[in-house]
Each structure stands twice: as C-alpha cells, then as structure tokens.
Design a protein that fits this description.
Immunoglobulin-like; disordered N terminus; eight-stranded mixed beta sheet; seven-stranded antiparallel beta sheet
Length: about 475
C-alpha cells in the first residue's frame, strides 16, 4: 500500500478545524508590527551551533552569542515591541508574504551580523523589518534587519518546496535574544507518521548552523547560514524550488503545534536573473567555467537575441557586493545585432589574489535611448584551488567500533597541474584507518581525482560528525568540512 502524505488524507474543513484548535490551545490574539527607530552604535554577538533540542517543545539550552560590546544601548521607543501580547499563530502562518523576487541568486555572504551593501539579496519587508534570502548548493542563507526588541524571528523552510505538511524536509528556525545575545533553536517537522505530523529533533542541522547578530536602537540584525548535513533536505543545484517564510512574534509566544499549515513562498533557486528586460529581447549567460580561483581570470559571455528596434544604447558590467573591489568593471556601447538576431558581450575580469571566496554576482546594466535601464545578473564562484565532492552515506550505529569506507573527488578549479597530499582530520574519538596522507596528481585543467578513505566510528555513536578533508600542495592549503551521519 502506498502511503499518501498526511495532509492529503484530510478534507480542508478538518485542516481549518485543526487551526482553530491550535489557536484555542494557546489563547492567541492578533498583534501589530512595530516601527523601527533611528540607528545607534551596534553591539555584536556571534555563535556556532546551538545545543540539543527536545521535540515538541522549546529547547532547554539554545546556543547564544557573546556580546562583543562593553555598553548596552538603550533602545529607542519605536524599536521595542510588547512582549506580553500573544499572537494568533494559525492566522499568521497562512498570511501570504509579498516578496521582492521569487528568483533567488547564489550568493555567499560574510556571517558577521553586519549587512553590507549588495551582500544580501532582499526578500521582503514586513512591518519595518527587512528580510533577505539566498543560497548556494547544499546551503541556505537568511538575514533580517530592524527586528524590534522583544520579538523573536521564526524562519520556516520547506526544503523540497512540496508543501509544509508534506514529507520530512520542513525545518523551523527560531531566533531569540537575551539582551544583545542571539540564541537559535531548530526543529524538524515530520509528516510521514500515519498518526500525523510531529516535531522531531534537528540536532544535525544545529551542528551545521552558523550565525551572528548585532543589536542597536533600530533593533536586532541577524545573519544565518545553514548547511545541509548530508540529508538531501536542501536543494543542491539551480532550477529547484524551496518554500520559505519569515515571521516575527513576541518573545513570549509559545511554540506552534505541528498540525498548523503554513503558506510558503516558492523561492526559485537560480544562477541568473533579469529584471525589467525589454520586450523583444532575450538573453542567457554562457559560462564555460563558473568557478575562478583568486589570482586568475574569468570570462562570462552574455548572448542576446533580438533586433536593433529594442533600442539598447549601452551596457555596463561589474561584480556586485563583496567582489566589487576585487574584480574588474567595464562598459561599452551596446553592439548591433547580426543577421541572425544575435549580439554578444563578454565580461572579462582578473580576480585579485587576496579575493574572498564564495559565490558572487556579475551585474550588467542595459540602458536604452530613453534612459530606461534593465538589470541582468548571473552568479559565479571565486573558489579555492581545490574543493571536495564528498560521497555521503548514512551509517547505522553499532554497539562495537566499526570501520566505514567513504570517498571524495578532489576537484581542481585551476588550469594548472595540481600535485599535492590528501589528509583526513577525524572528529574526537574517531580514527582514520586508511587513505590518510596520500599523494595525488591532477594533470588536466580543472580535473578531478577520486580518493578513498576509511574511518573507525566509535561504539554506540549516533549523530552528525564533522570530518575535515584537506589538500596541501605547493605551499597552499585547502580544507573543507563534510558531515557523516550515523543513525
């Protein structure tokens, strides 16, 4: 017998009844958003992953950041929310969000609690709070600015984009503040039991979460990055959809019941996006190599299809945000279309040797004869010399120490020959049985080499373990953390 998703087994009227029952249990009533006040100097808090959480309730020991400031700022009146007013969670979660763009670009921010110009892709504005969302393969990024003091932020993530009450890919992230220190708790909604949806532990995701925040008279600012701990919950390639929503509630608001539906924003994960593209014009980026290492050059070709009747006069190109001062910019009159209705423009850049790593965005601005502009954006990655494509698998726990075999492709991002040594750094209590300190050679430009290694997993171990893969060559060091799941 094929089991249908739990939500499909119920008539909509019963779902509505569940919403009402959830509201009745918490005694919730509507609340109003607050308006932020003028800015004052900020305090900063940063933290790694939160501590474990008990399903169906607020975690007992959430992770928190330590304030780096020495003086606590007095919040302006408009930045403080009433913590005593309950909120109707059932009504809040089904209220649709108005977003800036459904298409979301791959961009890597700095998780430092400070939102820099063009570092983040704006998502929505909710009652004076600005939210941001972007992605890269296997990782999602979230940020919010001007959160009123006394309010918590709730992020709902439907990893497969197939509805909040379907599957086991729905993660809730709640951010709470103790003074200037941010605390994050996470829990997973499991809709697969025949008995109905239930909250389950999300320790593996908390161990893969990085966040940092600041607090000032505007309120709170928070930046979050969550890596999928090898569970295939988050999308790994462009072209997929993830359901996203942000909500803000008084800090005393209890946890939501698992049965409450949530209306999600279907965010399309993309590597290219056009805004206000003129009628009669189509375009696509041609990126032979979407990665470039610091100190080397890259080219992105923009191919246009149309006619000169579109009236384009000029094109200017540059990298946005964190790469703006690490790459070249260029501008030129827009070329005429050929007999086949095509025009080509190349963005060529040398990346500075000390450029930061991560996904960046090339922005092209088109201007027509009337001065009207259009924006074209495409993502590319400033990458280390090598990265590791880890062949993940779930290992079953054992009462005895056990040996598990893994493999990873060492992938080069340079046109040069790579000759180095591969290392594996195991977690505390684990051992590397084989595959450690092995020499490798990648002869071809941007080639790869498969490396096999074995780990000794301690007896009775359960959880998500970070394993660091390392490559050393020619005085250069590259490392990447991957995760082994033991159930």
């Amino acid at each position: 017998m094929v089991r249908r998703p739990f939500i499909e087994m119920f008539h909509p009227a019963l779902i509505f009844l569940a919403v009402l029952l959830g509201q009745a249990r918490t005694g919730q009533t509507p609340t109003n958003p607050q308006t932020p006040a003028p800015q004052a100097p900020a305090q900063t808090s940063t933290a790694p992953a939160p501590a474990p959480q008990t399903p169906n309730q607020a975690p007992q020991a959430p992770a928190s950041g330590q304030s780096q400031g020495t003086n606590t700022q007095s919040p302006a009146p408009g930045a403080t929310a009433s913590a005593g007013e309950p909120v109707n969670l059932g009504a809040m979660f089904v209220k649709q969000m108005t977003v800036t763009q459904l298409g979301r670009l791959a961009i890597t921010p700095n998780i430092d609690g400070k939102i820099s110009p063009e570092e983040w892709d704006p998502f929505a504005s909710q009652g004076g709070v600005d939210t941001f969302f972007q992605w890269e393969p296997h990782k999602l990024y979230f940020a919010a600015a001007h959160i009123p003091l006394g309010q918590d932020m709730i992020i709902s993530i439907d990893g497969h984009g197939d509805s909040w009450l379907v599957g086991r890919d729905n993660l809730e992230v709640r951010v709470h503040w103790q003074g200037a220190d941010a605390q994050i708790t996470e829990r997973m909604l499991d809709n697969t039991p025949m008995s109905g949806p239930t909250w389950v532990d999300a320790t593996n995701f908390r161990e893969c979460t990085q966040f940092a925040g600041t607090t000032d008279s505007y309120g709170h600012t928070i930046e979050i990055g969550i890596t999928d701990p090898e569970t295939e919950t988050f999308p790994d390639t462009a072209g997929k959809t993830a359901g996203i929503r942000f909500d803000f509630v008084p800090e005393t608001t209890p946890q939501a019941e698992p049965l409450l539906p949530r209306v999600m924003v279907p965010a399309r994960l993309q590597l290219a996006r056009g805004v206000d593209v003129p009628a009669g014009l189509s375009w696509k980026p041609e990126v032979p190599e979407r990665t470039v290492v610091p100190g080397e050059s890259n080219k992105i070709r923009l191919t246009f299809t149309g006619t000169d009747d579109v009236g384009l006069k000029r094109i200017d190109m540059r990298s946005e945000g964190l790469a703006q001062n690490e790459t070249d910019s260029s501008g030129a009159p827009f070329p005429t279309f050929d007999k086949k209705g095509r025009a080509f423009v190349d963005y060529k850049t040398k990346v500075q040797p000390d450029a930061g790593l991560g996904y960046r965005v090339m922005k092209a601005t088109l201007v027509d004869g009337s001065g009207k502009s259009s924006t074209l954006e495409t993502s590319y990655e400033i990458a280390p010399l090598v990265t590791f494509d880890f062949n993940s698998k779930v290992v079953q726990s054992s009462t005895e120490p056990q040996v598990a075999k893994f493999s990873a492709f060492i992938r080069s991002h340079t046109s040069k020959r790579m000759n180095g040594v591969f290392h594996v750094n195991a977690p505390d209590g684990w051992k590397v049985k084989s595959g450690e300190d092995v020499q490798f050679l990648i002869y071809d430009a941007r080639g790869s080499k498969r490396q096999v290694f074995e780990l000794v997993i301690p007896a009775n171990y359960k959880g998500t373990a970070p394993v660091k893969l390392v490559a050393d060559f020619a005085g250069t060091h590259s490392e990447q953390t991957v995760y082994v799941v033991v159930e």
